[in-house]
């Protein structure tokens, strides 16, 4: 009976993985259709540079048009006619005084741009100016006079949020106006506006002036290119460099060449269409997840058939009803569950192979690393499939369990390792005398884990050292998709060591090596949690990490053998 039940569980899990593969294929098709990249330049910078170089703005604009620039941007705080009627300083700055005279671009100037064949993009920047006193109808009436190609929010909240969001959505639809959010901006209400059907949305990337001043030309081009390739950015809000007009024109020409070489069209982007999952798909994935967690339970605990059937049945019913009536919440729960279980499943498979395999064989150790990585990658794709919607691809919504999915699986693997040994290994571990070097190694491991947690997620709490950033840039240039350090430099080599020597030979260090090894597997799953990164890029990043990790492991193994041989020769000579 148990064999048949296990067969059913493996079958349903396999079907869920196959379904995930079909969803991944459709997602790749969606991403391949989203290959147009547009560029806009702030009109204020165009005017300032033309004035500095003492040439006419019209001549400069003609040069820009030759480089494929057809859109200029203006922020809400730069339009002269909007200063006193629409936007005022917050009362705590100067008692609600009108905006200062630095905003000197008139509507007539902007209209002249349109007659020259340029489109206007309105950047709504709420970092300084407040629109809370302004009625939405006033904003829309003023925007009608501007006739922008798109409205892009750099901070604050989208117009109409929260009460009049439907009115703003109707205005966008009626006037066929694109909208978007500048990357890293907190534009409240953007996800809700997208849900209302306003899917002519695009992500915008901007390099701030102070950051641009610290970058050389190559670094700036690399940053624009990575934003397009890695994060589904499709509009570049390019700030002109503090240099001459000729240098800036060459800069734009180089940027256009980079984008085209990367396989993108230098055209104004449009939405590739909706990407939604039918209701039955996440439910089917939920059934597969319940099979996965039941198989994990059977591998760790002495569950009977009845107990495992109850576990599977309750989980399936809860997830099915949850996905039916609270789809967003339970899709996140399903994705988190898969992310938590994937590294544990990889451990259980590898541990089973490790118990029957040929220890002290480098081929066997390579096989263990490969098996664990493939398991983590396939389940990572299944996790990504459960959240596969255009709102996630465009980063209007995000996977919310990044940090817990980095820590909890390591705890699960740690205790599962001892549980499978009947806790004898746990007692053996704690019965060993502690040496200073052991404590130092343990403290180092804790620090490394803490750094990984603080450096994870969408906003890192720790800066990247300059030396590490240089290595990252080098790997980007070599491999296109940079592998993660915690995979190829930490996780995979330690997994090789764990499989090669085993717990018995590693002794006290076995748990430390085990946790370090599975940091790499957790990282693989985490790679697929970044749904705004194209799927093929995530797959390539994982493959590069695996190959580089095996190379580091092999090199380390050869160095250890060489060092041991040298030590033996020295000992022989001394004796």
How would you explain this protein's 3D organization?
The protein has helices at residues 2-32, 43-53, 57-66, 91-94, 107-115, 136-146, 165-175, 190-195, 209-213, 217-231, 245-261, 280-300, 305-325, 327-356, 362-386, 390-393, 402-420, 424-431, 436-454, 466-479, 485-506, 510-529, 535-574, and strands at residues 38-42, 71-75, 119-124, 150-153, 178-182, 201-206, 235-237. The protein is built from 23 helices and seven strands. It has two domains: 2-28 and 275-570, no CATH class; 35-261, TIM Barrel (Alpha-Beta Barrel), CATH 3.20.20. A seven-stranded parallel beta barrel has the order 1-2-3-4-5-6-7. Strand 5 (178-182), helix 8 and strand 6 (201-206) form a beta-alpha-beta unit. The radius of gyration is 28 Å and the shape is globular. By secondary structure, it is mostly helical.
**Beta strand %:** 5-15%
Quick one: how many beta strands?
Answer: 7
Q: What's the helical proportion of residues?
A: 55-70%
Number of helices: 23
Structural class: mainly alpha
Instruction: Please state how the strands of the largest beta sheet are arranged side by side.
Output: 1-2-3-4-5-6-7
Main beta sheet: 7 strands, parallel, barrel
Name the overall outline: globular
Order of helices and strands: HEHHEHHEHEHEHEHHEHHHHHHHHHHHHH
Low-confidence stretches: 89-102, 127-131
What is the averaged pLDDT score?
A: 85
N- to C-terminal separation? Answer: 64 Å
Rounded to an integer in angstroms, the radius of gyration calculated over CA atoms is: 28 Å
Number of separate domains? 2
């Amino acid at each position: 009976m148990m064999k048949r039940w296990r067969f059913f569980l493996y079958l349903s899990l396999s079907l869920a993985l196959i379904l995930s593969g079909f969803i991944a294929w459709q997602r790749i098709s969606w991403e391949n259709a989203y290959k147009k990249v547009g560029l806009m330049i702030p009109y204020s910078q165009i005017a300032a540079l033309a004035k500095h170089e003492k040439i006419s703005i019209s001549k400069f604009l003609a040069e820009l048009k030759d480089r494929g620039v057809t859109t200029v941007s203006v922020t809400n705080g730069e339009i002269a006619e909007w200063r006193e009627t629409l936007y005022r300083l917050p009362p705590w700055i100067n008692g609600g005084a009108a905006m200062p005279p630095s905003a000197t671009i008139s509507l007539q100037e902007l209209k002249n741009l349109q007659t020259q064949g340029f489109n206007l993009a309105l950047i709504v920047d709420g970092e300084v100016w407040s629109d809370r006193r302004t009625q939405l109808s006033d904003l829309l009436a003023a925007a009608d006079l501007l006739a922008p190609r798109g409205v892009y929010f750099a901070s604050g909240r989208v117009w109409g949020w929260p009460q009049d969001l439907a009115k703003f959505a109707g205005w966008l639809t009626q006037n066929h106006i694109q909208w978007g959010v500048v990357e890293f901006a907190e534009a409240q209400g953007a996800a809700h506006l997208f849900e209302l059907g306003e899917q002519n949305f695009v992500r915008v990337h901007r390099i701030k002036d102070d950051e641009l001043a610290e970058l050389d030309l190559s670094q700036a081009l690399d940053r624009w290119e990575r934003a397009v390739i890695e994060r589904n950015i499709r509009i570049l809000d390019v700030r002109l460099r503090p240099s001459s007009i000729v240098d800036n024109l060459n800069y734009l020409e180089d940027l256009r060449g980079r984008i085209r070489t990367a396989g993108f069209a230098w055209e104004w982007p449009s939405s590739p269409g909706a990407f939604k999952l039918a209701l039955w798909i996440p439910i089917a994935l939920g059934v597969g997840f319940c099979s996965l967690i039941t198989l994990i339970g059977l591998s760790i605990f002495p569950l009977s058939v009845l107990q495992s059937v109850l576990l599977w049945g309750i989980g399936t019913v809860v997830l099915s009803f949850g996905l039916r009536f609270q789809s967003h919440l339970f899709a996140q729960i399903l994705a988190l569950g898969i992310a938590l279980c994937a590294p544990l499943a990889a451990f259980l498979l590898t541990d089973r192979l490790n118990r029957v395999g040929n220890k002290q064989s480098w081929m066997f150790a390579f096989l263990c690393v490969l098996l664990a990585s493939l398991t983590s990658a396939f389940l990572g794709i299944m996790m990504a499939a459960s959240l596969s919607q255009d709102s996630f691809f465009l980063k209007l919504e995000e996977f919310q369990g990044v940090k817990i999915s980095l820590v909890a699986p390591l705890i699960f693997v740690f205790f599962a390792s001892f549980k499978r040994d009947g806790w004898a290994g746990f007692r053996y571990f704690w019965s060993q005398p502690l040496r200073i070097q052991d404590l130092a190694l343990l403290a180092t491991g804790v620090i490394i884990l803490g750094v990984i947690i603080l450096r994870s997620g969408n906003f890192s709490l720790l800066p990247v050292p300059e030396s590490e950033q240089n290595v990252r840039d080098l790997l980007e240039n070599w491999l296109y998709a940079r592998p993660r350090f915690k995979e190829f430099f930490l996780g995979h080599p330690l997994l090789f060591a764990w499989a090669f020597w085993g717990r018995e030979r590693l002794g006290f260090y076995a748990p430390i090596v085990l946790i370090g090894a599975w940091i790499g597997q957790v990282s693989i799953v985490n790679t697929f949690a970044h749904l705004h990164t194209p799927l093929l890029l995530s797959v390539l990043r994982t493959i590069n990490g695996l190959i580089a990790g095996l190379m580091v492991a092999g090199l380390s193994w050869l160095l250890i053998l060489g060092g041991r041989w040298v030590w033996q020769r020295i000992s022989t000579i001394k004796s």
